Amino acid sequence: MPLGSFFFSTLSRIPKSVNLNTFLTMEERTMRSSNPTLQDNTFRSERYYSIDEQMTVSGVVNKTGILLSCVLLTAGWTWIKFYQTGDVQVVYPWMMLGAIGGLVLALVTAFKKEWAPVTSVGYALLEGLFIGGISSIFEKQFPGIVIQATALTFGTLFSMLAAYRSGFIQATDNFKLGIVAATGGIALVYVATMLLSMFGINVPYIYGSGPFGILFSLFVVVIAALNFILDFDFIEKGARQGAPKYMEWYGAFALMVTLIWLYVEFLRLLSKLRDR
């Protein structure tokens, strides 16, 4: 899973007067299914609990709703903050706090899953600070883009869930390997462009609004969406294997990481399409 929101290319479209390279993304891809959070052995040691103490799919759904509410709460706060002033510099410190704090808690949650009932809530609140700021800035530049990105994100989530439940898309070993490899490849591209940018070397084709940039964003959106299948599969396995109750928070956290990643990628894609 990714460790951030791949904020680098997203933030490249924010006014140049604001140096947002510090938001560079490792957070979301660390939290993606290609990472330690939702690997096959994640639930292996989490067995032998009574029925009442075991993880359930419905429990994950409920926890996901709580985390989503936390994201919306703080996102709304930074959104209002920006529109009250219209100044990026006002929300910049809060976006910085959200990006860095979210990264730290994402790492903690990934390796201390028993802390997920607390750290996942903190992660959601911090990510909301960043998402609210980024969304308000994009909305000012491209009116209506936030509603479009939100609709596409949740539409994709429910479509992937329907495809998974119906068996239309199955999480076979080859499928998992392909998605993990593609996710890792995307992460390497983002990390490479980050390192190059530190030496003043830019990669315009990926982040531009030309055909190549749009195709790249489409590819990333597809891979992000397919990561939902891996999430659903691992969560279902956890419930079936009788993982402890706190793993519901862990599973909800993983879903939120994918959801936020996909939303940010949709923002980037739509901004490229509207900037042509």
From TrEMBL:
The chain crosses the membrane at residues 60-80, 92-111, 118-138, 144-165, 177-199, 205-229, 249-270. Keywords: Membrane, Transmembrane, Transmembrane helix. It comes from the Bacteria. The keyword Cell membrane does not apply. This is Bax inhibitor-1/YccA family protein.
